[in-house]
Design goal:
By secondary structure, the protein is α/β, with parallel strands linked by helices. It folds into 2 domains: about 5-35 and about 205-360 and about 440-460, Periplasmic binding protein-like II (D-Maltodextrin-Binding Protein, domain 2); about 55-205 and about 360-420, Periplasmic binding protein-like II (D-Maltodextrin-Binding Protein, domain 2). The protein is built from 15 helices and 15 strands. Strand 7 and strand 8 (about 235-240) form a beta hairpin. The longest helix has 19 residues, at about 250-265. The radius of gyration is 22 Å and the shape is globular.
């Protein structure tokens, strides 16, 4: 059965940009970068491997070596100072009231506490590849704070593009969820080998499947998991051109890794499991074996005809308008689409696939070109005030990295949605066995394996 044959009638046309439900990735569809980011990111890898070097200005007095700060030399602005904080962030990852002159904004806090006037210069990036270009010497942009995925932040740090942090200036880090820290033990995302802090978490989430429950039910989606994207029809509905994958290389490749690993277990005569070592043998989302990367890519190419796009911004409107029946999605965007706190929630649900997936952290770091280092620390610390983080979680629907903030959350809306304990945002122990954290796989792997596979998936070679 085609969706257009549904007795409820055809789905409404997808609304124009001004009417769509806002997603933090929404405006990617309007960007003209297309696939240029991936190709340039491959070139940018030359900076990480040392193959490409450029000259630069003399380091500031507080920088004792690339990426290392002597905090006794960092200037602290006085009362009456005007500071422009330069930020690179995902679009719509915090409400305007957080930045503007509202009662709970950072600008109000700085004015009331220190007499400092803070303004912002914000660039909203549309993909990790784009942020890579901005932060690298190739992009020549300068920020005080940026918010990459943790695995990219580690890559930046290895390249000397991140400053170490002064923990004494970040007392609110005592509120962090310690279970999210120190991973992987060999190279923790938030700390350098010498133990110094290089980033702090913003929010975390998982990557899974958001789907329209008017057409697909939870047992069916859970039973198929990632295999759903290889199905031309399910439950009598034609899914060709009714599914979308995210426009993020690591998130797409992980689907191939997980499905290929699952298929491999079955081919060996074992009962497939999404559990990772030591509990199982499933592939991770960080595979670096060329044969496994090729297997994942080849499998994903088979699913490509069923997709209408690689797009990170239309997860919400395409599901709500029935333009899509199932989308590759981040957990928080799925919750924004479903609006479980509304009197009449949208018929949308979210599943963490049985084959497993990745969990990720969006990390906040200070660029090695930062000029306002002390104010940047105040910004990071302010975000982790429990009341502030609670309000931010209510806004963007992602999983809080702040335990105290989570304890302050109360059920929301007419449905009394328990946002602090929803298993779609905070998985149980059994589900955690199927989740692995994306890590830095290294510039060489990105340049020689991941980027070529991604280019072939998106553009045919």
């Amino acid at each position: 059965m085609s969706v257009n044959d549904d007795p409820r009638g055809p789905p409404p046309e997808e609304p124009g940009p001004e009417a769509q439900e806002v997603s933090r990735r929404r405006f990617l569809k309007y960007a003209a970068l297309g696939g240029a980011g991936t190709a340039l990111a491959a070139l940018g890898a030359g900076y990480l491997t040392g193959a490409i070097r450029i000259g630069g200005a003399a380091p500031p007095p507080w920088e004792v070596s690339p990426g290392v700060v002597d905090y006794s030399k960092v200037p602290i602005p006085g009362a009456g100072s005007d500071v422009t904080l330069r930020i690179a962030q995902w679009f719509d990852y915090w409400p305007g009231s957080f930045l503007a002159d509202s009662s709970w904004s950072f600008a109000t806090y700085m004015k009331d506490t220190y007499g400092i006037n803070v303004r912002y210069q914000i660039d909203y990036f549309t993909s990790m590849e784009e942020l890579f270009l901005w932060v690298s010497p190739l992009g020549k942009k300068e920020y005080d704070v940026f918010v990459p995925a943790s695995e990219l932040e580690v890559l930046f740090d290895h390249a000397g593009w991140v400053y170490n942090l002064e923990e004494d200036w970040l007392p609110n880090l005592t509120h962090l969820d310690g279970s999210l820290l120190g991973k992987p033990a060999s190279d923790p995302w938030e700390r350098r080998p010498d133990g110094s802090l290089r980033s702090v978490p913003y929010f975390w989430g998982t990557t899974g499947i958001a789907y329209n429950t008017d057409y697909l039910d939870r047992p069916t989606v859970e039973g198929l998991g990632w295999e759903l994207f290889w199905q031309p029809d399910v439950l009598g509905y034609d899914l060709r051109g009714k599914m979308n994958m995210l426009n993020e290389m690591r998130d797409v490749l992980l689907i191939g890794f997980k499905q290929a690993g699952w298929n491999g277990q079955a081919a060996e005569g074992r009962t497939p499991s999404g559990e990772l070592p030591p509990d199982g043998t499933q592939w991770t989302s960080n595979e670096t074996d060329p044969a496994r990367v090729k297997a994942a890519k080849d499998l994903l190419l088979q699913a490509r005809p069923n997709l209408f796009d690689f797009n990170s911004t239309n997860v919400i409107p395409s599901l709500q308008t029935r333009a899509a029946l199932a989308n590759h999605s981040w957990s928080g965007d799925a919750m924004l689409a479903a609006t479980p706190d509304a009197r009449n929630p949208w018929p949308i649900d979210y599943v963490i696939p049985k084959q497993g997936t990745r969990w990720w952290i969006d990390a906040m770091a200070i660029h090695s070109k930062a000029k306002n280092i002390w104010v940047a620390h105040e910004f990071l610390n302010f975000i982790h005030d429990p009341e502030v983080m609670k309000n931010l979680a209510y806004w963007n629907r992602y999983s809080s990295t702040n335990l105290t903030a989570r304890s302050l959350m109360t059920p929301l809306g007419d449905s009394e949605w328990d946002i602090a304990n929803d298993p779609r945002l905070y998985p149980d122990a059994a589900t955690w066995k199927r989740l692995d954290l994306s890590v830095d796989v290294g510039a060489a792997v990105l340049e020689t394996l991941y980027n070529p596979a991604w280019n072939e998936l998106k553009f045919g070679g």
